[in-house]
Amino acid sequence: MKADIHHKLLDCIERADRYGANRLLDEWSAVHGYQKLLVEVAAPVLRNVGEMWQDAEDFSLAQAYVASKIVEDILEKYGQTLNQTFDGKPSKGPVVIGNIEEDLHGMGRKIVKSFLKADGWQVHDLGVDVEPARFISEAQKNHARVIGISAMMYTAAEHIREVRHEMDRTGLSGNVPLAVGGAVFLLRPELAMELGADGFAVNAFEACDLFEGLLNRSEKGEL
Amino acid sequence: MKAITGKDRVFAALGGQTLDRRPYTAMLSLYGARLTRCPLSHYYASADAYAEGQGAVLETFQPDVLFSSFVLVAIAEAFGSKVRYFENQAPNLGRPAARNAAEFMNLTVPDVDSHERLLYLRQSLQKMSNLYGDNTAILGILLSPVDLPILIMGVEGWLETVLFDPEGARAVLDVITPFFLRFANAMLKDGAHALALPLAFLTPAIVTRDMAASFTLPVLQDAFQAVDGPIFLHHVGGTFLKFLDLFCGLPGVAGFVMDPRDDLERARKIMGPEKLLICGPQGPTLHKRSAGGIKKNCLKMMATLAPNDRFMLATTGADVDFRTSQDRILALKSSVETGS
């Protein structure tokens, strides 16, 4: 029975069918309840989609976008609080994300935001074209456990270096990990370390694992 | 006896013949500015500067094909989008003019005969055609109606519209398709021998097969019938093969620029013997490879082809990077000279 709903939801995502997914989830949750939907359906299917995205070359942007929209729909419709993950575990804590200064391409960041929220992070999204100093001030204000920055092009990504300088200056380095992602790092993975990042993710699903991994390293003093 | 020209080679390849060697080209739209040391803000605004840059490309590399200015964001500017310019890379879309179909419908469609940014694209093409078009094939670069809205609404705005607002998408296409046809046919009149259309909304990296078949294909089917010249479809940067069977029969399409990761033998089987198959190393990462390695790969690729295969060696993906040394580009020319 559960395998059946998993299969159907996955099929909706593969066909980029947001409305079909919503109908399916509405019907299922009317019988089994919202909590079960989150824990037994949404979480495992999202993990499955994440694996597909890493393995298959042809998991399209449209499918990833629809998957993120379905996550948003679930969060909105079922009143998911930010204090609980899809797996029913406690919140993983606050994070600050944004597109670096001069970068106006926010689509990838928005997909990451949905998946981070579904994964149990309290996401403070600063939007596009964010100055380096603002990442620091917002991280301090919100007690962020991770800072995540997206960049599409090299010229904009260069500003991430300034974020690292500010983190060094304010003492955040070593305590708050700096994660990066975006098209420029797919072409030049070595750039992430050059700019002072603690790690980078190749897609939105990997971002969840990256944030968790970096947080663990930070707590063990390994950054 | 008349010397064989680049244009001769390209047209011979289209007709299934090889003259002295297979044709070759590289996407050197940006690179022309490096050769003439022209600031990019001027290069992408002055038709004379662009034509001069392409003259330097021709002199340095003798490609068989030259491309019109690969600055499609000039069309974005004409619709009101904001564009960011850089010192050593092609400009990029900044803030789109519209976020959704409703905002799009409030925009003024620019006139292809009078808008400054569109005239830059057309006049640079006219100058190239006048100066080099007798001996070199000239390709005009444009986006198809399914991709032009990306320049005006951004990828997210257009994808959101296509996925969740079908009526809005239809309304946008009803405006953008006539614009595409006016501009495409103007480029052909200006001297382009054919058009090259990068097709994001027909690649597996962007859309599902169902979207490609039910949304993209009917639009292109209608639009391409009214284009007055041959069309080459370009893979943008992702693999193309998975959906090739869907669109290889589109009207007016003379060939395909395939991703180097695609299986060319399978691509040939799917597209049939008549189309020109174009492939080669990725332009944006050419600078990271050695000239010897590039030549070795090009020769390996050509060795898989039948002698009468309609093929042109070309860089794929976007522009060749500004930092690329000349020997990397000349490695392509050397490959067709050795391996034809």
Summarize the structure.
The complex is a heterodimer of chains A (223) and B (340). By secondary structure, chain A is α/β, with parallel strands linked by helices.
Describe what you observe in this structure.
The complex is a heterodimer of chains A (223) and B (340). Chain A is an alpha/beta fold and 223 residues long. Chain A is built from 11 helices and 5 strands, in the order H-H-H-H-E-H-E-H-E-H-H-E-H-H-E-H. In chain A, helix 5 links the parallel strand 1 and strand 2 (121-125). In chain A, helix 4 crosses helix 5 and helix 6 crosses helix 8. Chain A is globular, with a radius of gyration of 18 Å. Chain A starts with a helix and ends with a helix. The mean pLDDT of chain A is 86. Chain B is built from 14 helices and 10 strands. In chain B, the strands form 2 sheets. An 8-stranded parallel beta sheet of chain B has the order 1-10-9-8-7-6-5-2. A two-stranded antiparallel sheet of chain B has the order 3-4. Chain B is globular, with a radius of gyration of 19 Å. Chain B is an alpha/beta fold. In chain B, 48% of the residues lie in helices and 11% in strands. In chain B, helix 8 (148-164) packs antiparallel against helix 9 and helix 13 (291-303) runs parallel beside helix 14 (326-339). The A-B interface holds A 14-16, 18, 57-58, 60-63, 65-66, 69, 102, 104-107, 110, 153-155, 187 and B 84, 86, 89, 92-95, 154-156, 159-160, 162-164, 204-208, 210-211, 239, 242, 284-285.
Largest sheet of chain A: 5 strands, parallel
What's the arrangement of strands in the largest beta sheet of chain A?
2-1-3-4-5
Order of neighbouring strands in the sheet with most strands of chain B: 1-10-9-8-7-6-5-2
* Rg of chain A, nearest Å: 18 Å
Helix-strand layout with pairing:
The complex is a heterodimer of chains A (223) and B (340).
Chain A lengths: L1 H13 L3 H15 L1 H22 L5 H17 L15 E7 L7 H12 L2 E5 L6 H11 L3 E5 L3 H4 L2 H11 L7 E4 L1 H5 L3 H4 L4 E3 L2 H16 L4
Helix pairs in contact in A: 1-2, 1-3, 2-3, 3-4, 4-5, 5-11, 6-8
Chain B lengths: L5 H9 L9 E2 L5 H6 L3 H4 L3 H15 L3 E3 L5 H7 L3 E2 L7 E2 L7 H5 L10 H17 L4 E5 L6 H17 L1 H24 L4 E5 L10 H16 L6 E4 L6 H7 L5 E5 L6 H8 L4 E4 L11 H13 L7 E4 L11 H14 L1
